[in-house]
TrEMBL record:
Domain (Glycosyl transferase family): residue spans on this chain: 199-356
CDD domains in alphabetical order: GT4_MtfB-like (cd03809)
GO molecular function, one term: glycosyltransferase activity
Domain Glycosyltransferase subfamily 4-like N-terminal positions: 27-178
Originating species: Pseudoduganella lutea
Cited Pfam families: Glyco_transf_4 (PF13439), Glycos_transf_1 (PF00534)
Protein's recorded name: Glycosyltransferase family 1 protein
Keywords: Transferase
GO biological process, any: lipopolysaccharide biosynthetic process
Signal peptide feature range: none
């Protein structure tokens, strides 16, 4: 991209993509950040990947000038007008793709994925929650411009973070374009065999935490006819998150009782995840709260029919291509699962609609729209 006659150089957060800091597990923010780091250069943006973390642990980005705690403390203590009070990077603009936002001497674009910690603190880690929420709200107001992923999120950012709606642009998340084509069947078969999976299973993907509502999905699955459960596994992909102890115990109890429940807690390879999607018969996303919901688009792209929550941003993302259900009703979730497992005509319609929806939500398009936000910010 060319702004003011020069190539645009942008600092981009890479903290959530660092294997040494994440243990190799990428959450939705990590997937988003990694996609931008890869796709923005294709849009003519020179990317300077930067991470908060010890230099010895960084393999994706270079260190920020100061650690996040130290930079935050300087924000709190020093007036922004003082010399040296703002972090300096040799870039035109800095894009904070997570919630680690500090004052800089360059314009800041911040992606605020949702307002979960403030809107629903009961679903979050209670440790230092009040302090973190206050810091996040304060940091959000430092941004010159904010990116949200859905229209749903805008109202929450205004209410919970005090962001001026006029400074918010909607840029949806996406999926890798290669996911729109079927992966190699032999490779899919090898991945499934490695994890003890039989094609046609019910699948869900996401970190195990209360808002993901996996407990309701487990209950729905266990309520299906025994013949269906014998034929189709329930496959849960995601690491254990905050407040997941009870759910983990329920999953293990179901396994001990001989149920066809498989929990893949350490599936860190993007290619392996793609293969697991490809082997699924039905994807189920019963979430209670999302700022976007990347797994829905991944399932669409993989040609898997989707049962999705009708809550928060999910209907906006699915665009009518999923069977929408009340996530508070295990009976409704189970009925939709059974319908998609048995009704071939319905399956075909959902698969076709999902493919069409995913084709309009690629990471390449996300990067293009993000670069346009950079240009607009620098022109103002």
């Amino acid at each position: 991209m060319d702004v003011r006659g020069v190539t645009l150089k942008v600092g981009v957060s890479a903290t959530t993509t660092e294997p040494g800091l994440t243990g190799g597990h990428l959450d939705g923010i990590g997937v988003y950040s990694r996609a931008l780091l890869r796709e923005l250069p294709r849009e003519g943006v020179t990317v300077d990947a930067r991470s908060f973390g010890p230099a010895a642990q960084l393999t994706v980005g270079r260190p920020m000038p100061r650690s996040f705690p130290l930079a935050t403390m300087r924000d709190l203590v020093l007036p922004g007008a003082l010399p040296g009070a703002r972090e300096h990077l040799d870039v035109d603009l800095f894009h904070a793709t997570d919630y680690r936002i500090v004052r800089m001497d360059r314009p800041i674009v911040a992606t605020l994925h949702d307002a979960l910690p403030i809107a629903h603190p009961e679903w979050c880690n209670p440790r230092l929650r009040g302090l973190k929420n206050w810091l996040q709200a304060r940091a959000a107001r430092k941004a010159d411009h904010v990116i949200a992923h859905t229209r749903f999120t805008i109202a929450e950012l205004v209410q919970c973070f005090g962001v001026d709606e006029r400074r918010i642009s909607v840029v949806p998340c996406g999926v890798d374009e290669e996911w729109l084509d079927a992966p190699d069947a032999a490779q899919v078969g090898a991945t499934l065999a490695q994890h003890g999976l039989r094609p046609g299973y019910f699948l869900t993907v996401g970190t195990l935490q209360p808002r993901k509502n996996i407990g309701a999905l487990l209950q729905a699955y266990l309520g299906l006819p025994a013949s269906v459960r014998a034929q189709r596994q329930l496959v849960i992909v995601g690491a254990a998150g905050a407040r997941s102890e009870e759910l983990v115990a329920r999953i293990k109890a179901a396994q001990q009782n001989g149920e066809n429940v498989v929990w893949l807690s350490r599936l860190t390879s993007s290619e392996a995840l793609r293969h697991v999607y490809a082997g699924a018969g039905v994807f189920v996303f019963p979430t209670l709260y999302e700022g976007f919901g990347i797994p829905v688009v991944e399932a669409f792209a993989s040609g898997v029919p989707v049962v999705a929550s009708n809550a928060t941003s999910v209907p906006e993302v699915s665009g009518g291509a999923a069977i929408e259900v009340d996530p508070m009703s295990s009976a409704a979730i189970g009925a939709a699962m059974l319908e998609l497992a048995r009704d071939e005509a319905l399956r075909d319609r959902c698969i076709a609609a999902g493919k069409a929806r995913a084709a309009g939500l690629t990471w390449r398009d996300t990067a293009r729209k993000t670069a346009a936000v950079y240009e607009a910010v620098l022109k103002n």
